[in-house]
Design goal:
Layout (H helix, E strand, L loop, with lengths): L1 E6 L8 E7 L2 E7 L12 H4 L1 H5 L9 E4 L2 E4 L2 H19 L4 E5 L4 H14 L4 E2 L2 H4 L2 H10 L6 E3 L6 E5 L3 H4 L9 H11 L1 E5 L12 E3 L6 H15 L7 E2 L1 H8 L4 H8 L3 H13 L4 E4 L1 H4 L3 H16 L9 E3 L23 E2 L10 E2 L8 H6 L5 E5 L10 H10 L2 E6 L11 E4 L8 E2 L10 E5 L12 H11 L15 H8 L7 H7 L1 E3 L7 H10 L2 E2 L3 H9 L7 E5 L18 E3 L1 H7 L6 E5 L4 E8 L7 E5 L16 E2 L4 E2 L4 E2 L1 E4 L1
Parallel strand pairs: 6-7, 6-17, 9-10, 9-13, 10-11, 12-23, 17-18, 18-19, 24-28, 25-27
Antiparallel strand pairs: 1-2, 2-3, 4-5, 4-19, 8-14, 15-16, 20-21, 21-22, 24-31, 25-28, 26-27, 26-32, 29-30
Helix pairs in contact: 3-17, 4-17, 6-14, 9-11, 9-12, 9-14, 14-21
């Protein structure tokens, strides 16, 4: 047996791991005590990598649909057929008839897929952005004037942290990256305060100094109340701002009485939270999918979170919020050429079948895919590592659309419902079979990058994802060699190209395993950018209008959650069931008791699962974990119910009813 040092790629926390290997068998994964970021922490998801690698349904060779049936085939036959059929579609219907869905943690494969998408020249691009995360870049754009302002709490020094709709003890912060979340939350609570705003007393709330449980869909009201009170006191900072009069008018209705009634929380608890905010040196706020999955409510909540941090002096200050300057690129190098976007936002033309759904960050809403297929506008889809059936909205409309595609090619490592619908299945290396660097470095909680060598050889005929897309591009007649030549380049050759303009070069990162640079607080490039813009934009008209238009939520709504042994569509084999959390009062009203089978029904569909009647969740909320096939929450969603500003589907706050089975 020998041990290989690597890093986990199950989520964006990318914790350091040690992998015990004997021959071609992966025996065990445990945390790396010497890792500079995670310090030995490793969650059940990361420790499950051996089961992922040795999964009984793992894909080991390409598959192609022949006479309606998927059959094993060779790479040459599969790619020749895929290339020929894609070329025919492009010749007959144009490049825009080919769509891409991007969802992978594989850096080289992701970049090569991006290169192929650009070479084809299609505007049809989809990603998880419009499934769980448009609010954050939207607010960066509208309030900060630059979509790349990716804020992170200075967790090592903050003494006041507010967590809204996020449960990092289980999710690890999702897009905020928090290795060892339990230790981090405990440390902040010990030296200061941690407040959790969530309809459930989550695992994180149990460690916090304060917990507020408003009605789902009213987080914005709590923040608007706090903003109103701080404005009454006067700003706690002298940073330049604009739009303060418009902001004051927008939050004026959110008095203590109005907010307590709307959010259905005791006024005394709001006063306690407000007193804590007033006393804090500055307020750090992190939001999660409990906020961002609520469509336009998520936009407004994220906006008011930023406003509260601006007013209390948290932005770009020690102990407050720092802004990631990038590792593979350096934002400060742009200087005065760093773009300032208009206060109206950055949007583009959307799909022909749904013209009201505009493009955001050059992406189309995932919700429009079935409409585009039905209209004949999209005839081929290339899925870059996504689990479409457990992530796209309104499953009942999605599955027929995927079946109607002329070509549906998907990269994957384990057979599942999505691969069973494909015309071409492209088995790529799993996380332990490839060398890699951390992708999307702006999601990191550090200004850093990591490297790992391959832990074991790939099983069967699995190939590198970058090689698959390079070979496909070659068959389509595109020059794809700038990132790597499929005939001569190795995985490491491609990684070297990806780090060619980074803060540290490939050889240095590969030799040590990681590289990082100190965080700069305050960062001069951020100060210069906000100064050139004329100050933080506190009241973008789009957001002011969305706040004014919000209606009270329905009496009983569905809200999603994550689980310790599950991440989106992954890790089903760990066996964590999709329990449906229901408050005892709501259960009694519907005739549903603990352990019963219960059907949750919306206007578009239903699912059935096991009820967990529990007082940890407040009245009016039905909590169901997402990512399950057996109780697929996407059957409750409506592809037509989107925020037309960003294309974000409403995945939370959906009116539902409960029915005993």
């Amino acid at each position: 047996m020998h041990t290989v040092r690597s890093f986990c790629r199950i989520c964006t926390s990318v914790c350091g791991i040690l992998v015990d290997v004997e021959g071609d068998q992966v025996l065990q994964v445990h945390g790396d005590q010497d890792h500079p970021f995670s310090h030995g922490y490793c969650c059940p998801k990361g420790r499950a990598l051996p089961q992922l690698h040795h999964h009984p349904d793992r894909l080991e060779r390409p598959r192609m649909r022949v006479d309606g049936l998927l059959q094993d085939t060779s790479w040459e036959t599969c790619l020749d057929d895929l290339g020929s059929r894609l070329k025919d579609i492009i010749d007959r219907h144009g490049p825009e008839s080919v769509a891409f869905y991007f969802s992978t943690m594989e850096s080289a494969g992701f970049r090569m897929a991006e290169a192929l998408h650009a070479a084809i020249g299609t505007p049809a691009k989809f990603s998880p952005l419009t499934i769980d995360g448009t609010a954050k870049p939207l607010i960066s754009d509208l309030v900060g004037g630059f979509m790349g302002l990716s804020g992170r709490a200075d967790l090592d020094n903050t003494d006041f942290l507010m967590l809204v709709g996020i449960n990092p003890v289980v999710s690890h912060g999702h897009a905020i990256s928090m290795p060892n979340p339990t230790g981090t939350v405990r440390a902040i609570a010990k030296r200061g305060q941690v407040w959790v705003i969530d309809p459930r007393r989550t695992e994180t709330a149990r460690l916090a100094t304060g917990h507020l449980a408003p009605r789902p869909g009213t987080d914005h009201a709590v923040l608007a109340y706090l903003v109103r009170e701080i404005l009454c006191d006067g700003m706690k900072t002298d940073v330049p701002v604009q739009g303060i009069d418009e902001l004051t008018a927008a939050v004026e209705p959110f008095t203590l009485e109005h907010t307590a009634t709307l959010a259905d929380v005791p006024a005394a608890e709001l006063l306690e939270l407000c007193a804590a905010v007033r006393a804090a040196k500055c307020v750090n706020i992190e939001t999660g999918t409990g906020v961002t999955m609520t469509a336009e409510r998520g936009n407004v909540t994220q906006w008011l979170a930023w406003v509260l941090m601006i007013l209390t002096g948290a932005m770009n200050r020690p102990g407050g919020i720092w802004f990631h300057p990038g590792f593979a690129y350096q934002l400060e190098a742009f200087g005065e050429f760093l773009p300032i976007t208009p206060i109206e936002g950055s949007f583009g033309p959307g799909p022909r079948s749904r013209p009201e759904a505009q493009a955001f960050i050059n992406e189309w809403p995932c919700a429009v895919l079935p409409d585009e297929v039905e209209a004949g506008n999209i005839r081929a889809l290339i899925n870059v590592g996504g689990s479409l059936i457990t992530s796209f909205p309104e499953t009942g409309k999605l599955i027929p659309a995927l079946r109607n595609l002329e070509v549906f090619a998907t990269t994957e490592i384990i057979n599942n419902e999505t691969t069973e619908l494909a015309t071409h299945v492209l088995p790529t290396k799993d996380p332990l079979e490839r060398p890699d660097i951390t992708i999307h470095d702006i999601l990191s909680s550090q200004v850093s990058v990591q490297y790992t060598s391959a832990v074991v050889a790939p099983v069967g005929e699995r190939r590198s994802m970058w090689w698959v897309f390079a070979e496909l591009g070659r068959r389509l007649g595109y020059e794809m060699g700038s990132l790597g030549d499929p005939e001569t380049s190795t995985d490491d050759d491609v990684l070297k190209v990806l780090l060619s303009g980074a803060r540290a070069k490939y050889d240095e990162v590969a030799a040590k395993g990681w590289a990082e640079v100190p965080r700069e607080l305050p960062a001069e490039w951020v100060e210069d950018h906000i100064g050139r813009m004329g100050g933080w934009r506190l009241a973008p008209p789009l957001l002011v209008d969305q706040l004014a238009a919000l209606e009270p939520p329905a009496p009983l709504v569905f809200v999603p959650r994550r689980q310790r042994k599950k991440l989106n569509g992954q890790l089903d084999f760990l066996g964590e069931p999709p329990e449906i959390f229901i408050h005892p009062d709501d259960g009694e009203a519907a005739g549903v008791f603990n352990g019963d089978k219960v059907t949750v029904r919306s206007s578009t569909g239903e699912l059935t699962g096991i009820a967990k009647v529990d007082g940890s969740i407040r009245r009016g909320a039905v909590s169901i974990p997402h990512g399950h096939h057996a109780a697929n929450v996407n059957r409750l969603t409506n592809k037509d119910d989107i925020d037309v500003v960003t294309g974000m589907v409403r995945y939370s706050g959906i009116p539902v009813s409960l029915h005993p089975v």
